[in-house]
Amino acid sequence: MAAPARRSSSRGAAAPKASIPQLPWDRVRPAPVVLVSGTETVLADRAIRLLRDTLRAEDPTLEVSDLDASAYAPGELITLASPSLFAEPRLLRVEGVEKTGDAFLEEALAYLASPADDTYLVLRHAGGVRGKKLLDAIRGGLGGGIEIVCAELKRDADKLDFVAAEFQAAHRRITGGAQRALVSAFSDDLAELAAACQQLLADTDSEITEATVDKYYGGRVETTAFAVADAAIAGRHGEALGLLRHALASGADPVPVVAAFASKVRTMAKVAGTRGGSNQLAQQLGLAPWQIDRARRDLQGWTDEGLGRVIESLADADAQVKGAGRDPVYALERMVGIVAARGER
Questions:
Q1: Distance set, CA 40 to CA 54, 86, 151, 345 (Å)
Q2: CATH code for the domain in which residue 85 is found
Q3: Which of 29, 122, 172, 345 is surrounded by the most beta carbons within 10 Å?
Q4: Together in a domain, 65 and 190
Q5: Do 196 and 54 share a structural domain?
Q6: For the chain, what is the domain count?
Q7: Model's pTM, two decimal places?
Q8: CB atoms < 10 A from the CB of 189, how many?
Q9: What 3 state SS string does 267-283 have?
Q10: How far apart are CA 231 and CA 172, in angstroms?
């Protein structure tokens, strides 16, 4: 099951030189310590989930525990790593290592000196200099670990590889043209690209072709409904209007545009006001961890009152574009203005 070390991958940028194996996300394997580094949350989530599934396939009694390094209580790591009555293997997933405090840093370094038997410690570090002492120790070989490098996918070739891997993992066929159409439609956001792949896998049972992609995402090539929503949610009113008009000129239907806004705002509403790690909240809210992280970024600068007003405006826009109004384009532009103002007008 072990995979040879690789310094770089066609799926992302090369990681800094280290004395431990550095592997791409889809070649993760069990090790006493697994450092999952890099800014690409989608790939990091996939790697951690793949490791969990691998370990659970080997032993269904696997115990899985989650920790947040940014809100760590002294002694948690040692307690969770301690052998249980029936000696089940343990997977300890720690997120937020890039925000770690001194308590976790000290205990993690002590743990690396003598890792517990039948325990797999996963440390998620999304970038930055915080926790560098711990990363240096792991990369230097302390704890006998490996590093899973989850760098941002910037090249279209890397995104095409990602799409191909999604369908290959599901044992489904997709044509090269369909892969290119998906990457073109969702080139700006890997999370949205991953979600589109999963929707096609769930909703179809035959080979995915360009016609299939066009049926689901026609009119989104180059300018997608989600790109319009992203710009508006970030407060970039002029950019959002320009993207909207281009999308409509490219054949986008007003109804899916409103649906894209509603999808993102619903997720923001679910996440607003919550506390805790992404993995824990994902289980509670029925979302993926990357959706939690993305919603938290989107919520910066928003108020609860503004979010409520935006939800009301989306409901009105939805009714307008479905026949309650005579000018769906005006309804969309008004909706974009309210969202871009974060509901404050």
A1: 21, 37, 6, 34
A2: 3.40.50.300
A3: 122
A4: no
A5: no
A6: 2
A7: 0.62
A8: 16
A9: HHHHHCCCCCCHHHHHH
A10: 33
- Can you name the residues that pair with 63 across neighbouring β-strands? 90
Residues 306, 167 share a domain: yes
- Residue 37's contacts (CB-CB under 8 Å, 6 or more residues apart) are 15, 125, 126, 127, 135, 147, 148, 149, 150
Give the ranges where the chain is alpha helix by DSSP (H): 41-58, 76-81, 102-113, 132-139, 156-169, 176-185, 190-203, 210-217, 225-233, 237-249, 254-271, 278-285, 289-298, 304-319, 328-340
Q: What is the DSSP string of 240-271?
A: HHHHHHHHHHTT--HHHHHHHHHHHHHHHHHH
213 vs 37 pLDDT, higher one: 37
| In a shared domain, residues 165 and 128 | no
pLDDT band at 284 (very low <50, low <70, confident <90, very high): confident
The reply to whether 283 and 328 lie within a common domain is yes
Range of the domain at 292: 156-340
- Segment 126-162, tens digit of pLDDT: 998 999 999 999 999 999 999 999 998 888 888 889 9
pLDDT per position as a tens digit, 311-326 = 999 999 999 999 888 8
Cβ atoms 93, 47 nearer than 8 A: no
pLDDT band, very low/low/confident/very high, at 72 (cuts 50, 70, 90): very high
